[in-house]
Amino acid sequence: MRILLQSSILILADNIKYKYMLMKRVILFEIIFVFFFSSVFSQTRNQKTKVTTKQNIKKESDAKLLYEQACNLYDGTNGIFMDREKAISLYKQSADMGYSVAQYELGRLYIIASDNNEQIHITKEEALDYLKKSAKQKNPKALYALHVIYSEGKIVPQDHSIAAYWLRLGADLEDPTCIFCLGLIYQQGEGVEINYQKAFDLFKKAANLNHVAAYEMIGECYLHGWGIEQNINEAKQWFRKGAEKENSDCQVALADIYVVVDDHPQAYYWYRKAAEQGDSYAQLKTGAYYATGYKGCVEKDINEAIKWYRKSAEQGNANGQYHLAEHIKMDNPNEAFYWYKKAYEQGQLNAGAELGIMLLAGKGCEKDYNKSVEILEKLSEKGINRAMEAYGTMLIYGIPGVLKKNKAKGKALLHEAKKGKQYNEN
């Protein structure tokens, strides 16, 4: 019995050992199977991924090539004749292949063409659709463009809230232009509630991304106390940062501060820098320094003053037009009349007074008593000294068939004009 039991135990042990060895072999086989086929599947998947990647690269390369060809045709560059209709067709092919740059360009070109009343080879709906497709691919230029068209109501109904939405998306991509403009709309309350603190924070963020225009706005915030405690020295430092990077707005703002603190050599220096970059206000101020001369800045030089006034005038600056006319009216009354008229049309009232006087005398123009009286009477009522002097004298003597004498009123106007002059001189 004991022998039989021992034999049974040995047989059972052998069976367990066999089963264990068999199980080990099955597990090993499974491991080999999984490893082998996983390797095969992985290789296949990698090959497919490589093929897809190559296809995508080729597709993007083809789309970029079409885009470049379109650019050449649209502008007629690289010795290629201009063919804008063909260019738009190529832009569309590139855009339809998913090339974000081409999608943005189609929208941009539509806006430019519509603004300039040029022939357009794309519909408004297509332009908007392509811009949105480009924006979906996180193209910050497209996001900014969508902000502009909704903000200005260019090809869609004006909607500042939607404009702000697109701008936020661009700002979320850390685009400095979008961040800066988002600051502007928080400062102005376009599509959002006015929030000077948030605006200031956004300007600082844009400045940290080297957006130079943000330097000016940070300076303005410190200058006026918008969203931050007022600090003139901080304002000056931020304006200087932008000025040193050749930003003409910062140069003018810095010069204005130097005028206030009576540092005219520095004021002239920065006005001149901005004037050389084409800023019409700075050109006016530079002309003024030459017109009067200022110790430590420049010697008086009327020809140089006229040069800078003319540059300002030709850019449409009303004060530049007025001061140019003032300096040339003796030698060239016809041109002076032209510039007085241009300035008055923009609301420069002193220029209007001179215009009325020239019409009365027929200097630089044909005499026109009726027009002269109309202008000078209107400007006298607005308290323009030069107009009150001229109109008061006209009332004292009268103009037959045009203006009746009124000595009392005339003398009263001359008296008011004299008081005004004395006030201005003091």
Walk me through this protein's architecture.
With 426 residues, the protein is mainly alpha-helical. 77% of the residues lie in helices and 0% in strands. It is built from 20 helices and no strands. The protein has helices at residues 2-75, 84-96, 100-115, 124-136, 140-152, 160-172, 176-188, 196-208, 212-224, 232-244, 248-260, 264-276, 280-292, 302-314, 318-328, 333-345, 349-361, 369-381, 385-397, 407-425. α11 (248-260) packs antiparallel against α12 and α13 runs antiparallel to α14 (302-314). The longest helix has 74 residues, at 2-75. The chain is globular, with a radius of gyration of 38 Å. It starts with a helix and ends with a helix. Residues 1-20, 31-37 and 48-53 have low confidence and may be disordered.
